[in-house]
Amino acid sequence: MERDLVRDGLRFKLAEQYRECPTRFLSLSKEAIDSALGREIVAELRNEGHIEEEVRGKVRLTPRGYRAFQSDPSPYSYRNFMTPRVVSASTSPVQ
After folding, report:
1. Which phi and psi (to 5°) does residue 92 adopt?
2. I need a surface site. Which of 26, 32, 34, 50 has the fewest CB within 10 A?
3. Topology of domain 2-71, CATH
4. In sequence order, what are the beta bridge partners of 26?
5. 42 φ, ψ to 5°?
6. Running along the chain, 95 residues long, what does each successive block of 10 average in pLDDT?
7. Distance between CA 53 and CA 91 in Å, rounded?
């Protein structure tokens, strides 16, 4: 779960910056660079072709990464969940 939050947060920030200036690199925090999780996520996104690194800790989205970000559903949407059932006022959930 934490991994997904970090990955989605990074992709969101990179997409936001890509919209402003696609050629600018984002400098990651020292904590992100030093953490194993941060390095793993950057490596994964780089291997997928979604980001490129100028030097260690300076990254930007590639056009492919931006398109992938746009086509992914929002990580916090309920689009992929079942429609909730409505219980009528005359039905008691407790028997």
Report:
1. -100, 125
2. 34
3. Arc Repressor Mutant, subunit A (1.10.10)
4. 59
5. -60, -45
6. 87 94 94 92 95 95 94 59 45 46
7. 58
